[in-house]
Amino acid sequence: MSLPDKVTIIEVGPRDGLQNEKNTIPTETKIQFIKALKQANIQEMELTSFVSPKWVPQMKDADDVIEQCLDNTRNFVLAPNQKGVERFYQSGANDIAVFVGVSNTFNKKNINKSTDESLEELKPLIADLKQNGKFVRACVSTAFYCPYEGKVPAEKTIKLCEAFAHCGVNELSVADTVGMATPKEVYQLFNSLKSIQPKNILITGHFHNTRGTALANIYASLEAGVDRFDSSAGGLGGCPFAPGATGNVATEDVLYMLHGMGIDTGVDIEKVIHAVDVVAPFMTRTLDSKLYHLQKATASTEA
Ligand code: HMG
Ligand code: MG
Prior knowledge:
By secondary structure, the protein is of the alpha/beta class. About 45% of the residues lie in helices and about 15% in strands. The protein has helices at about 15-20, 25-40, 60-70, 80-90, 105-110, 115-130, 155-165, 185-195, 215-225, 250-260, 270-280, 290-300, and strands spanning about 10, 45-50, 75-80, 95-100, 135-140, 145, 150, 170-175, 200-205, 230. The strands form two sheets. An eight-stranded parallel barrel has the order 1-2-3-4-5-8-9-10, surrounded by seven helices. Strands 6-7 form a two-stranded antiparallel sheet. 3-hydroxy-3-methylglutaryl-coenzyme A binds near residues 49, 112 and 208. Belongs to the HMG-CoA lyase family. GO terms for molecular function: hydroxymethylglutaryl-CoA lyase activity. It is an enzyme of class 4 (lyase). Keywords: Lyase, Metal-binding.
């Protein structure tokens, strides 16, 4: 068994985790959450997104969040279009995440454009971002299944990944948006993505845990050589335009599994759990995190 010695965790809780939350979460709480995650030694994080406040009201305070949270680690802000990229330049952030769905129907529901239209809009923007020395992450949604179209052929996902790679993005975050993928298909797709050029492009797995397969999918990805994973503290998350999609795999559950296998992440589990405490009172649904609930149950027995 040859698994990586080190894995990078990209914390997506402040963005993917909160975007779908119905309660308005105070900006100050979001900032406190992000800072607590940084205390846990998270080095890469999606902070927020530049999207329409009419479509995703929870992200309307993006500028205020960024202003308080930029530091010398990698802080991503999501942007789907020209307006989003313009806002990104004005914000002073250095790391951007663009996003497109492989499935046309999903992309239309999410961004109001076809997959090809989104890609065509983004191509010159990515070229410009690269010329300006920005780190560009491309999030590839519905890489396995679409909530509207069903199974997404691997060839279509590989084609979109290749198109992004050709644009010069630094990273591909390949997403199981609705948490329908299972380990064999995950292994096969990530194994195929190894041949993507250039060789130094970073490949990341992004798993929602809707059907409880996320940890198994991470293990399958590790076996295919993937050493970067998006996860969300407390298992928060879900895309407002992907019906049925629940949270991302919980960061603390991923850390427990990786650390137990001797894989270093540099991230402190206890401090991640402490960060979840900051936002937990604002959540309208039960958190999908084994470790968080176990810790709380143990603490109340000991009290
Ligand atoms: P639209 O209505 O087609 O936009 O929405 P438009 O270009 O026609 O413009 C309409 C209005 O929106 C205009 O304002 C624009 O200025 C404004 P008005 O003149 O009416 O006052 N606008 C914007 N405002 C702020 N920021 C922008 C922006 N663009 C236009 N960037 C749009 C198109 C993309 C804006 C809309 O569909 C949208 O905001 N969608 C949000 C989608 C979203 O945030 N989804 C969740 C993130 S993706 C995800 O979760 C998946 C991921 O986790 C991976 C996975 O799990 O799959 C990454
Ligand atoms: Mg997601």
